[in-house]
Design a protein that fits this description.
The protein is α+β, with helices and mostly antiparallel strands and 398 residues long. Helices cover 37% and strands 10% of the residues. It has 16 helices and six strands. α10 packs across α13.
Length: 398
C-alpha cells in the first residue's frame, strides 16, 4: 500500500514563512538494509556500467582505489548532464590536464573553451576555482569528508557525498535523480518532488552500508539508469524487486510523483555576426559573472521578456550593412530564448572590445551551444580546430 509519510502541503512547506521549513518526521524504513545492499551489490558486481572515471568492483577487490580528482571532475560534469554527453568531455579534460595541479595552472580561456557545449557554464568557472584551491590550499589533495568537501567552490550536498563515498569510503547518502526515482518506488512515496527530498534522503541514509558505500552509491545510480528507468522500468530484472512497494503493487511508473511544471517564459534578443573579407568572424567575451559568464559570442543585445525592446539593425553594436538571416531558439533551464540573427559582410571597424576569429579557429573558441546555433544560422561553417590552444593567446582587437 502506498505510504504518504511526508507531505509538504500538509506541513505548510508550500507557504512562505520567516521560520525555517519544518523537518520531516522521524522515519524508519521497513527494508532490511543488509539484505538490500547485499542483493544490490551482488547485481552491481556483474552488471555495473563501465565508465572512464570508475574503478570496477574487480579492480577494487585487487586493491585499486578511485582517483579523487577523476571522481570530482566527473561528478561536476554530470551535474544536469547525461553520462553519454560527459564521456567525451571527461576524456578531453583528463588527457589535457591529468592532475588537479595541471587544471589549476590552465588559463581560464582554455578551460572555458574545452567546456564549450557542455552547458551550465558556471560549473566550469567553479571547477577551475576549486582546482586552484585544492592545488594551492590543500597541496593537491582533496579533503576526505563530505563536510570538508562542501567548503570547496561548486560542491554541494550531492557532489560532496558522492566524492566522499566513492573516493574515500565515507558512508554518505548519495542522492541524484536516479536514486530519487529508485527510492520513491521502493517506498511508494506519495509526496511530490521536490518536497519529498528530505524523506528520500532519510531512506537512503538508512540503506547505505558502511562496507563499500561508494559501490553502493554507484549501484543505485546504475539501477536507476538501466533497470528502474523513468518509463517502462524492467521490474522483472530488478535485483531489489522483493523490497519494492511500487513494483509489488504494479505501479512503478506512478513514482516519483512530481509537481506540475509551470509554463516556460520566453525571452528575446538579437545576435550580430560580422564577417570580414578573409572569413574571420568578430567575437567578444561575455562578462565573467552571470549566465554564460566568460564565454565567447558574436555581439548580442540583452535578452528581454518584453516584446517592445530595440531589436533589428537599430540595436546593432556598430554600423554595418546588416541583413536579417534567420532566427534561432534555445532552451535554458528556466526560460526559452529566441534570437534574431543578423549578418554583415565587409571590412567593418567594430570599435568595441573583441577579436576577429579566423575560420580555422572558430571551432576552438569558447562558444556555448546557443552561440554555435547563431553562427550556423549565419552560414558560418567552422572546421575542426588545428589545435585546442587557439583561445589561450588571443589578442584584443578594436
Amino acid at each position: 500500500m502506498p505510504r504518504d509519510r511526508f507531505d509538504p502541503a500538509l506541513s505548510g512547506g508550500t507557504k512562505r514563512s520567516r521560520c525555517p521549513p519544518p523537518r520531516p518526521p522521524s522515519f524508519m524504513t521497513t527494508i532490511d538494509p543488509t539484505a538490500f545492499s547485499t542483493a544490490l551489490l551482488a547485481w552491481y558486481d556483474v552488471h555495473h556500467r563501465t565508465l572512464p572515471w570508475r574503478v570496477s568492483p574487480r579492480e577494487r577487490a585487487a586493491g585499486l582505489r578511485a582517483d579523487p580528482y577523476r571522481v570530482w571532475l566527473s561528478e561536476i560534469m554530470l551535474q544536469q548532464t547525461t553520462v553519454a554527453a560527459v564521456k567525451a568531455y571527461f576524456e578531453k579534460f583528463t588527457l589535457r590536464w591529468p592532475r588537479v595541479e595541471d587544471l589549476a595552472a590552465a588559463p581560464d580561456t582554455a578551460v572555458l573553451a574545452e567546456w564549450a557545449g557542455l552547458g551550465y557554464y558556471a560549473r566550469a568557472r567553479n571547477l577551475h576555482a576549486c582546482a586552484r584551491m585544492v592545488a594551492g590550499e590543500y597541496s593537491g589533495r582533496f579533503p576526505e569528508t563530505a563536510a570538508a568537501l562542501k567548503a570547496l567552490p561548486g560542491i554541494g550536498d550531492y557532489t560532496s557525498a558522492a566524492i566522499a563515498a566513492i573516493a574515500f569510503d565515507e558512508p554518505a547518502a548519495v542522492v541524484d535523480g536516479n536514486v530519487e526515482r529508485v527510492t520513491s518506488r521502493l517506498e511508494a512515496i506519495e509526496a511530490p518532488l521536490p518536497g519529498a527530498k528530505p524523506l528520500i534522503r532519510a531512506v537512503v541514509e538508512q540503506l547505505t552500508p558502511t562496507e563499500r558505500p561508494g559501490d553502493f552509491a554507484q549501484a543505485m545510480m546504475d539501477l536507476g539508469a538501466t533497470i528502474c528507468t523513468p518509463t517502462k522500468p524492467a521490474c522483472v530484472l530488478c535485483p531489489v524487486r522483493p523490497f519494492c512497494t511500487a513494483s509489488r503493487a504494479g505501479e512503478a511508473e506512478r513514482y516519483p510523483v512530481k509537481q506540475k511544471k509551470k509554463a516556460v517564459p520566453e525571452r528575446r534578443g538579437a545576435a550580430f555576426v560580422a564577417v570580414r573579407g578573409d572569413g574571420a568572424v568578430f567575437l567578444r567575451r561575455r562578462p565573467g559573472t552571470g549566465m554564460l559568464g566568460g564565454m565567447s559570442e558574436p555581439p548580442t543585445t540583452s535578452w528581454s521578456a518584453r516584446s517592445d525592446g530595440a531589436l533589428g539593425a537599430a540595436a546593432a553594436p556598430f554600423p554595418a550593412e546588416w541583413r536579417r538571416v534567420g532566427e534561432i531558439e534555445h532552451g535554458f533551464t528556466h526560460f526559452r530564448l529566441v534570437l534574431e540573427v543578423w549578418r554583415a559582410d565587409g571590412e567593418q571597424r567594430p570599435g568595441i572590445e573583441g577579436w576577429w576569429s579566423q575560420p580555422q579557429e572558430i571551432a576552438g573558441e569558447a562558444l556555448p551551444t546557443v552561440m554555435r546555433k547563431v553562427l550556423k544560422a549565419a552560414k558560418i561553417v567552422a572546421p575542426a580546430p588545428r589545435n585546442s590552444q587557439s583561445t589561450e593567446t588571443r589578442k584584443t582587437a578594436r
